[in-house]
Specification:
The chain has about 160 residues and is of the alpha/beta class. The protein contains six helices and eight strands. Strands 3-4-8-5-6-7 form a six-stranded mixed sheet, with helices on both faces. Strands 1-2 form a two-stranded antiparallel sheet.
Amino acid sequence: MSFETALISPTNAKCHMMTVTVAAIQNLHKNTGFRGRWQIVSEKPLTICDVAHNPAGIEQVMKQLQQLPHNNLHIILGFVNDKDVDEIISLLPKNATYYATQAQIERALPAEELFQKLSETHFKVFKVTNVLNAYKIVASNAQKDDIIFIGGSFFVVGEYLQKV
């Protein structure tokens, strides 16, 4: 059995039709619980996580974040070590504060390496080697009209969601 569904982009109102099988939906739910895709975790400050982890996904998520009203944008990012981080960094907004972190897995890009790359491109960035600690630091300093974003990999978002 399969279903046809519309996938709509909220920023440009494009609709893409796709066919999805029941097995694919069951597998997705088993592996993710459907969590971590533009998931709003809290509203004051607005806290969003998204598992976007490639240039196209990061670009879309960053455009969406920039369109939301906010005072300060706090971005907690971590990647696995096989990503083209230089290309992804070129897509990031300059008007944010970054928290370079890493998931506690062997494939994680070290937070130090991400910190160095972000620093070289003159981003305002802090290094926090643990996802949950990065969130605690941001949450303790964020104002109610700020946005906190957690993303860059399924593993980073997964570690965050397990603890909140």
